[in-house]
Design goal:
The chain has about 290 residues and is α+β, with helices and mostly antiparallel strands. The protein is about 25% helix and about 45% strand. A 13-stranded antiparallel beta sheet has the order 6-5-4-3-2-1-13-12-11-10-9-8-7, with helices on one face.
Length: about 290
């Protein structure tokens, strides 16, 4: 073997050694990167869990109830009713909401199509009592009060009931945080709420509450036999006017396999909606 051949052989060995060293270094780098990522995820889980379990279920429910949703709000909404065969019916409606000292008043009117145009709904929260609700049907020409025994009925053939059209007060349920998860790639608390006897058509609800927005983004509803009968989902959550808003939501009746999907087309907060909008005489105007 010539001197040149020996030098070439030594150089080849050196290149192979350097290549192995580089490969080893890259392997160590990616292993360390994986360890750092895993440690970061574990730390996040521990911090989130500590935050979750430092708060009781009752406290979380109260935070959800008290969250900032503006002094008043206006929504223009497209409602789509979807039957089990995928057939769709579309409606257009407008809703006004006003917060009078943590007592919510709401007014809703359907604009389209013709068969529901002019149908209106009015709801007043009452201190320590069930909400007062009225429904105005143009063909009757007068408002009809919704009594407590009718709260479990469907609201104008949607998958929402009249009970769903009002807020649940935290003290009406027992609440327990059972864990945490991700929903829409965002941290959320798992909150189980059990209704106090005689206060709801639902015996139990399991909600996912967005940890930052404090908005229930998913709710599973169970009956007295602990069968899941309905689901509610927020499909698009974003800030509008600085306030977290479910821009696209869906209620699904599992037994009928029927869905009501609502997409907000326009939203305005804190515009100073007058008190007169929420009076009974406004409901019956022609």
């Amino acid at each position: 073997m010539t001197l040149i051949d020996r030098e070439q052989k030594i150089e080849n060995k050196s290149q192979i050694k350097n290549k192995r060293q580089r490969t080893h270094c890259l392997t160590l780098f990616f292993e360390l990167l994986g360890i750092v990522f895993c440690l970061g995820f574990v730390v996040w889980c521990l911090l989130f869990s500590a935050r979750a379990f430092a708060m009781t279920g009752q406290e979380l429910a109260q935070k959800v109830y008290d969250r900032d949703d503006g002094d008043d709000a206006f929504f223009r909404t497209e409602m789509v009713l979807i039957d089990k065969n995928g057939r769709e019916r579309r409606r257009l409606l407008e809703t006004c909401v006003r917060d009078d000292g943590n007592r919510i008043r709401s007014y809703l009117e359907f604009l389209e199509p013709k068969d529901i145009e002019g149908t209106r709904f009015l709801s007043w929260e009452n201190e320590g009592a069930d909400d007062t609700q009225y429904l105005y049907l143009p063909e009757l020409g007068r408002a009809r009060r919704i009594v407590s025994s009718q709260k479990r009925l469907q609201f104008v053939n949607t998958d929402f009931t009249y009970e769903d059209m009002q807020r649940r007060r935290p003290e009406e349920d027992g609440h327990l945080i059972t864990g945490e998860t991700l929903y829409l790639d965002r941290p959320a608390y798992i909150l189980e709420s059990t209704a106090r006897p005689g206060t709801s058509q639902y015996a139990r609800r399991v909600s996912l509450v967005d940890a930052e927005a404090l908005v229930p983004v998913s709710v599973d509803y169970f009956d007295a036999k602990d069968r899941m009968i309905k689901t509610f989902r927020v499909l698009d959550l974003k800030k509008a006017g600085g306030i977290w808003t479910g821009m696209l939501v869906e209620m699904h009746d599992l037994k009928a396999d029927h869905r009501t999907r609502m997409r907000i087309l326009e939203v305005r907060y804190n515009t100073g909606i007058p008190q007169q909008v929420f009076e009974l005489r406004n409901l019956e105007h022609e």
